[in-house]
Amino acid sequence: MWHSCQSRSLDEHFAGRPRARELFEAFRATVEDLGPVTLVLNKTGVGFMTRVRFTGVQPRRDYLRVGIWLKRRVESARFVRVDWYGHQDFVHFLEIRTEADLDEELVAWLREARAVGDQEHLRRGALRERA
Q1: Whole-structure pTM value
Q2: 61-81 pLDDT, tens per residue?
Q3: Could you tell me if 105 and 89 are in contact, meaning their C-beta atoms sit under 8 angstroms apart?
Q4: Is 10-130 assigned to CATH 3.90.1150?
Q5: In the chain, domain spans
């Protein structure tokens, strides 16, 4: 996911980008419907975090570039790019251009990514090692 040590406010991220702000608020509501999150604001975008960041957005003029961290590679024409960070860490990038893009398929990926953010995969591994 994107990272920068500099911070910007939401208003700074979306200055002159009213359509991107509308899409962001709809995306934010979709993510928050899955449970509480912490917003992480930096120079390049806005991250959503539980224990760690699991999704984030980079505002564009009239759409959002969204990154979703999954522990597997997903094949979908919706992804404009997939970055592999070793082992089983993949960040899938897609664009949100309309509210219709916030569909059940995206929600399923966000739910899966939230489990990564909660670090459930680490707890499952620790339980297997004890058994």
Answers
A1: 0.86
A2: 999 999 999 999 999 999 999
A3: no
A4: yes
A5: 10-130
